[in-house]
Amino acid sequence: KTKQVNSTGGVSLFIEKSLASHVQDFVSHSSRILSVDLYFKGNVKFRIFVIYIPPISDSKLRSETIDLLLQLLVQTKQQNFYHAICGDFNMHLDTYYPIYFNRPATASQRSYRLLHHLLSHGYEETIPVNASDSLGTFHRDDQVTRIDYVWSCPMLKGFALTSYIFDAQDTCSSDHNPIITYFDDSLLVA
């Protein structure tokens, strides 16, 4: 008999050495949400959220994580931070877009509240949906999907340069491929 192990959290963020002196705070809001604040000259404040939203099968923990993230996003906007949210959303944006554009009453229901909040508040996902049929962010057996994202707040999205999914299957044993996103550093020298 094999024991089933459920993964319910654990997020991390690596900061490049040249940016380490700009880190002013980091908070583990739960084992599923981490925020890191970087401060730059000109009162430029940048917050990065790294998240893991549990799958639908753990609806209570999923709901709690989404509610906490939404509270944190509202606070972050009120504090005038540039910010980005990255990680495993365990959501399929490609199936949500048609609902958002064609069935607005359904799109705003509780089960879709995070994606609805992001889209209706001007956040932008950095990689176009269906950018690649063969390289998703999640792979298991023959299944390849996109459940990991990098979202930029409205103030930050103009600084996004490019994004791509890095094929990590040959370099690590994870069932996820990371998204690499580049931003224009002119934001940091404002």
TrEMBL record:
Pfam families: Exo_endo_phos_2. Residues 47-180 form the Endonuclease/exonuclease/phosphatase domain. It comes from the Eukaryota. One of its GO terms (molecular function) is catalytic activity. SUPFAM superfamilies: DNase I-like. This is Endonuclease/exonuclease/phosphatase domain-containing protein. It comes from Rhizophagus irregularis.
